[in-house]
Amino acid sequence: MSEKNSLLAEYEGVVSGHRDGHGFVIRDDGQADIYLPSNEMRAVLHRDRVKARVVRLDRKGRPEGRVTEIIERSRAPIIGRLLNEGGVWLVAPEDKRYGQDVLIPRAATGAARTGQVVVVELTEPPALYGQPVGRVKEVLGEVDDPGMEIEIAVRKYGVPHEFSDAALAQARLLPGQVRAADRVQRIDLRDVPLVTIDGEDARDFDDAVYCEPAKVGRGKGWRLLVAIADVSHYVQTGSAIDIDAYDRATSVYFPRRVIPMLPEKLSNGLCSLNPDVERLCMVCDMLVNAKGEVHAYQFYPALMFSHARLTYTEVAALLQNTRGPEAAQRSALLPALLHLHEVYRALLGARQLRGAVDFETVETQIVCDDAGRIEKIVPRSRNEAHKLIEEAMLAANVCSAHFISTSKHIGLFRVHEGPTPEKQETLRQYLKAMGVGQTISDNPQPIEFQQIANATKDRPEAQQIHTMLLRSMQQAIYTPHNEGHFGLAFEAYTHFTSPIRRYPDLLVHRVIKAILAGQRYQLPVLPTPGEAQAKLSKRLAGRSRTGAAEPVKKASVDSLAWQAAGLHCSANERRADEASRDVEAWLKCKYMREHLGEEFSGVVSSVTGFGLFVTLEAMYVEGLVHITELGGEYFRFDEARQELRGERTGIRYALGSRVRVQVSRVDLDGRRIDFRLVTPQDDVLLRALRDKSGQDEDPPEPDARSGKPRRGSPKPAAATPQTARQKKFPAPAGARSAGGKSRPNRP
Fold this sequence. Notes:
Layout: H1 3-8, E1 10-17, E2 23-27, E3 34-36, E4 49-57, E5 63-72, E6 78-85, E7 88-93, E8 102-103, E9 117-124, E10 133-141, H2 148-156, H3 165-172, E11 187-188, E12 196-198, E13 207-216, E14 219-229, H4 231-234, H5 240-248, E15 252-254, E16 257-259, H6 264-270, E17 278-289, E18 294-305, E19 309-311, H7 312-320, H8 325-329, H9 334-354, E20 363-368, E21 374-380, H10 384-406, E22 413-415, H11 421-433, H12 446-456, H13 462-471, E23 477-479, H14 503-516, H15 531-540, H16 557-593, E24 599-608, E25 611-616, E26 622-626, E27 635-638, E28 643-646, E29 652-654, E30 658-667, E31 672-680, H17 682-693, H18 721-728
Parallel strand pairs: 11-18, 12-19, 26-31
Antiparallel strand pairs: 1-2, 1-4, 2-3, 4-5, 6-7, 6-9, 7-8, 9-10, 13-14, 14-17, 15-16, 17-18, 20-21, 22-23, 24-25, 24-30, 25-26, 27-28, 28-29, 30-31
């Protein structure tokens, strides 16, 4: 479409507000977002569906528009604090993307008191010259009440947090234990010493494992059993519990609280593979050879009896010292655990030959007190036991994907596509700028990423390089179209191992059971895509692994239903992640309010044109150092190198740079923590001066005593429009939430 025609065209999409007052229209067709200036946002709110016309393009070709029609008002409730300003009652939205306070008539405040957190239902939408009006629908409590951050998040992101009366009634009718009728047509594995291995704080156990040596072909190998809770036996398609489970699509995990996908009687009771009780399960029974290849497998329903509930810490200690106290306590289980470790080593070898991506990243765990406040944030390390269970689950998931695809049955695959052409080019430029001798091909394979990671692991910038490798990849989704899993280097992959907490796994179980019975499983209805699913669907429609447009084939009703189910599960997985990050950011902000003015060492975790995001080394909390806090000179953002470079001194701040910062401001509502740069570490300055000395222009000659440039040194170059703009305007508030992942600025 020509530029002239594009300015005349209208596009449908959903409004995404910004805390600074402007907004964007997220187009349904997945093309560039349309910028809405603040005056265009007066009559609309965040999440409204609109039609917009592009009226101009900025100097970078990015579209700016005008709302021509409001198609549908968002029905999402607004959460905020009730305030009384000069006798006028209003609610200031907790989510600043709404941009406008909501007027509340005195008679509509209900039992709410000033300062309390409330849920508001709009009665009148905003207009060009009038604020939105609403009524208090629910009172959540005081802002500092324990767990308030979770109450806000589940409503803010629309997470279903209460089961329907019908689902709860159905759960009450379920038996408390396995009945005689449930054992019919099942393999009896009660004498097999299956065990569960999970974290210390786990409450539901949906997988158990066992391994023994076996002859595979003419060589040695192992028989590996992965037993998964048979949720599908109790949750029938179309039942009240099933409807609620589909609506949630996943369990949502918060510090100190879980919003489960299934009622507690199932998730922590009847379907949880608790020790010393009979449980129904679906088993993936595999023969693995010495090369770590699955030689053969079979699926079957079974009856099991977990012989122990083990923790990762316990198993790791046992494997490290087979004569220690842990081994003595588990002497009866020791042989099977050692065989598990052997098959894990073989599977790991196959993974390395396959070239699967396996970067070591630091995950953190928030430890809270009884009042819900953070006591500390600690790194969550992965030991041998974590990796052992991970490889066993991967093997079972691959077998389930192979079983479904070879049976010619439709189902949901877990698809992870390779990087888009745009991300490939960005990564190539970055690797070149960083002086990395290796790069990726035009059709990159996972092994290329792993080879780059291995080749750079000993470099000072290793963490920075590995971060960029990860950021070049796409997010995984659920879809009936098998496109393989790029990161794991599998031709087919699905999720089979967690039906207690993931709905796609439950669907996979139903499909496998149908195939075993010689039948075909069919989804009962065509789910109606919601806002998030619709947006995701448009962005994914007709895209291949390389990112090129493909003709969309006419799909059957059954295929459309599975596509909709995949989009629904993918979108709700994103929703759960966003809600969890929001709660973590809230907790971290409250935690850092107690440390205002204190100084900490940190590492630059992200670089943007408006500043640096720094993660504190001792506390694992991230905050922003705005570009105006970096000193009196101008800094240019080098996108290829992902760094800010000073024009006068050449000092550089890049991913992985070590700095010392002071906590200067905490914005709880905006989930934002601001740092002030105290002093750059000496190695940053020395490297900058060393790099500067290798350029054509000589660096300023430093004073011998102060280290500062002497008078008469070359003056910094005049500010370009970019640097002048950086100097004039403050940081785009809310560009990144505390503790959250980086999100590129919209135009």
